[in-house]
Design goal:
This protein is of the alpha/beta class. It is 25% helix and 28% strand. The protein contains 9 helices and 17 strands. Strands 3-4-5-2-1-6-7-9-8 form a 9-stranded mixed sheet, covered by helices on one side. It is globular and about 70 Å long. The mean pLDDT is 93.
Length: 364
């Protein structure tokens, strides 16, 4: 069994990566978790660092608490599988840990700024054959879980051969791509199809970095309670890399005081002649392409709310008509430009992490 080091076991991404890796068979085991020291409560002197991790895991999955247990000092068992816990600053750990090439892979689920640090990333390669970052990065090879098993002339490809540093992208980028691959597949029969513009609007559930009480004017530094905060997402730079010369616009990432999933509204403007039969069968084509999307997208016939999608393995859950719309010649017949509007719930944590683990399995 291949061994993996997880760096960062936060309340959402890190915890879900760890739990899902133990619950499912991905062909590797996270045998070690490295996390910085966690502040403890003096009112509970018998509870230590491992209890703090247990608290994160059990609150992430309340129904699974009997499967998450402490097995010793800095050791826990999840679904009967052991994991060693190391509570140390990352740079301190790298300066003192001497066993080179110990892990088949390292998953970096810390700050997205760590994925921009070439010195840190190169150090990590001394200890793991591959390093996977759970965010966007301009210095790592982009490898998006939402595009597993999918290639298209409309998307820039990224060479995976001979690379050891991989950025798996943000949850929002993967949410957009999970829908985009479905739409591109549904349009495959349209001759002379040409993409003109892509637009994405996001409703983003709050994350553990959100706060109670306003610290400053930045949307992420404002009080989350009863306060819709217009912010931005990493998707903006990712769209420009993936679509290259095509126009791409990310208007807003509206942060709301909710748990996942979030929500996206996507608009695609394109040239191409649309037949009456294609228009009549458009929704069904989207449904079929979701079923063939290699498990990254689903199609929901009922207009269910976000709770219905919280623990689903797909990244995007596309909604039917009238939320799904197609407008031939949307600017008038002279322009010959069509518009597709898709709307979907986006699994920012559960589905994103599950498919990230699938992507890692595909590499290592």
């Amino acid at each position: 069994m291949k061994k993996v080091l997880l760096i960062g076991c936060g309340a959402e991404i890190g915890s879900n990566i760890l739990l899902l890796s133990k619950k499912n068979d991905f062909g590797f085991d996270i045998d070690t978790v490295l996390n910085s020291q966690i502040a403890l409560d003096k009112n509970f002197p018998n509870l230590g660092q491992e209890h703090a991790i247990i608290a994160r895991l059990r609150l992430a999955y309340p129904s699974e608490q009997n499967s998450i247990k402490i097995s010793g000092k800095n050791k826990i068992k999840i679904y009967g599988k052991q994991t060693n816990l190391v509570f140390q600053d990352l740079n301190q750990f790298l300066s003192t840990f001497k066993v080179k090439n110990k892990w088949d892979a390292i998953i970096l689920a810390t700050s997205k700024n760590d994925l921009k640090d070439p010195t840190l990333l190169n150090k990590l390669l001394d200890y793991g054959k591959y390093v996977f970052g759970m965010a966007e990065s301009d210095i790592m090879t982009n490898y998006y879980p939402a595009l597993l098993g999918f290639n298209s002339k409309y998307l820039n490809s990224f060479d995976k051969k001979n690379n050891r540093l991989f950025a798996l992208g943000s949850c929002q980028t993967n949410g957009w791509l999970a829908q985009f691959r479905v739409i591109i597949s549904a349009l495959a029969e349209i001759k002379s199809m040409k993409i003109q513009r892509v637009e994405v609007d996001i409703v983003h559930p709050d994350t553990p970095t959100g706060r109670i009480g306003t610290k400053s004017f930045s949307p992420r530094e404002q009080d989350a309670r009863n306060n819709l905060r217009p912010s931005f997402s990493q998707i903006d730079g990712a769209m420009k890399k993936i679509l290259s010369e095509k126009q791409a616009l990310h208007t807003v990432s509206l942060r709301v005081f909710n748990e996942e999933p979030g929500y996206q509204i996507n608009r695609l403007f394109f040239n191409g002649k649309l037949s009456k039969s294609f228009l009549n069968d458009f929704e069904n084509k989207i449904k079929i392409c979701c079923e063939k999307s290699n498990g990254v997208s689903s199609f929901e016939q009922m207009p269910l709310g976000s709770k219905a999608f919280k623990y689903r393995k797909e990244i995007a859950h596309m909604l039917p008509q009238p939320y799904l719309k197609i407008y031939p010649n949307c600017f008038g017949k002279i322009s010959n430009i069509n518009e597709i509007i898709s709307q979907a719930f986006i699994s920012n944590v559960y589905g994103y992490c599950f498919n990230a683990l699938r992507a890692i399995k595909n590499i290592i």
